[in-house]
Design brief:
Length: 406
């Protein structure tokens, strides 16, 4: 049975606040991203924000009239600061200027946006703030003091990033991009099932060199492993991702170690394994590598003879980690990529590798694809997760891991 993939912000009502800053141009894109992700968006702008972008643009993108004043006569009770916050699932202020953050830190309510941040029901309407300012303003002790204060008061601060700034300088203070802000918000709403836990993930293929220009690899795209790393980070875990050669962006908040060969993957995993509580081995590690990789490119000698390629076996990374002594051994999850007899092979791997959970999938059918079907095999039996996109499945799997692992 296929699980429908709901839009990631389906059913969420977001108050999007804009304070004054050049990054208001990104807020237009962010409003679009929120709507595309299924949210309803109510834009509230400060007077300064209207100097950078018009309310007409923001209204067109959000499909709702924009609020700019607490004296807005459209509200029958004349209380937009109450009405707008009571139906909101979150307030996101993007961009948040240095002055606006100072207002929040002091609990000021001189304009509608600051007023509604103060008037929101603090327990059920979270406040997320995306700072955007010049690097000197960001690093100023007053701003840092104010940011620490709003964090202490429960706000979530998104970014800022480092990079080129509109003023021509380079440094911290750039607002996150629209898609990054959307992903942060999606992650914010995920249940924190792995809060305080740590997860090590291997992903992708490995590349076993024959000579400097050739090698043996496989069709694994790494998508499932990257989705698991992302889902674990969204669930609140500290995540390290050891990735073979793939062209995938690093999920936000995930620490990534890039490797090429199985030997490098093992060398990266071994020191990390005792530092993590959970190990998820999704990598399609090459079982064999050329026994005598050469430093120089192998050339045709004109005789028509084909070079003999001797292979030697790679270490089994998962089995090695699963055999670490108690106290150093994370709770291990293996993957079984099979072409047939999935349940039988997965159960065989459960025993052979000595791990508490094996997740089976039909490899050739899923390599490179965005959706997948997973079969969970453990000592108690088997359970199929419904077919879905890899991120939805990864979230289901993270919930299973959270429930099973000590
Ligand atoms: N694995 C590993 N190191 C290896 C081989 C596999 O860590 N050298 C892990 C994979 O990441 C996966 C699990 O072991 O979690 C099973 O991988 P798979 O390739 O399906 O199984 P193999 O042990 O290689 O067995 P076979 O190729 O015979 O199916």
């Amino acid at each position: 049975m296929a699980i429908p993939t709901p839009l990631p912000l389906h059913g969420k009502h977001i108050v999007l606040g804009l304070s004054g800053g050049v990054a208001c141009y990104k807020a237009a894109d962010f409003a679009r991203e929120l709507v595309k992700a299924g949210a309803t968006v109510q834009v509230v702008m400060t007077e300064a924000a209207t100097q950078f972008i018009t309310s007409v643009t923001m209204q067109a993108l959000s499909n709702r009239p924009v609020y700019t004043s607490q004296w807005d006569a459209r509200e029958p009770n004349h209380m937009p600061h109450i009405n707008l916050t009571r139906e909101a699932d979150a307030i996101v202020v993007a961009p948040a200027s240095a002055d606006f953050i100072a207002q929040l830190a002091q609990g000021r309510a001189g304009e509608l946006l600051a007023l509604l941040c103060l008037a929101r029901p603090i327990e059920r309407c979270p406040l997320l703030v995306a700072p955007a300012m010049n690097r000197e303003m960001w690093s100023h002790p007053a701003t840092q003091r104010n940011v620490a204060q709003i964090r202490a008061d429960g706000a979530t601060v998104l970014g800022p990033a480092a990079g080129d700034q509109a003023c021509g300088e380079t440094g911290d203070g750039r607002m996150l991009e629209a898609d990054e802000l959307r992903d942060e918000l999606v992650a914010f709403f995920q249940p924190k099932l792995l809060a305080g836990r740590s997860v090590l993930v291997t992903a992708g293929p490995t590349f076993e060199a024959i000579d400097p220009v050739r090698g043996i690899t496989n069709h694994s795209s790494g998508k499932m492993g990257f989705a698991i790393a992302r889902a674990a980070a969204e669930a609140g875990a500290r995540v390290t991702l050891v990735a073979g050669p793939v062209h995938l962006p690093t999920p936000r908040g995930v620490r990534r170690i890039d490797v090429q060969s199985a030997a490098q993957m093992l060398a990266a995993v071994l020191p990390e394994a005792p530092l993590h509580g959970i190990f998820v081995a999704t990598a399609a590690v090459a079982d064999w590598r050329p026994a005598n990789a050469t430093d120089a490119k192998i050339k045709k000698d004109g005789s028509g003879r084909v070079p003999a390629l001797a292979l030697t076996e790679n270490a089994d990374i998962l089995a090695t980690v699963a055999r670490l002594p108690a106290g150093q051994r994370p709770w291990c999850v293996g993957f079984a990529a099979e072409s047939h007899d999935l349940a039988r092979h997965a159960r065989d791997k459960l025993q052979r590798k000595g791990v508490p959970l094996v997740v089976g999938n039909l490899g050739p059918a899923t390599f490179g694809r965005d959706d997948n079907t997973l079969l969970l095999v453990d000592a108690n039996g088997e359970r199929e997760l419904p077919t879905g996109d890899k991120l939805s499945l990864a979230r289901l799997l993270v919930a299973e891991i959270a429930a099973r692992s000590p």
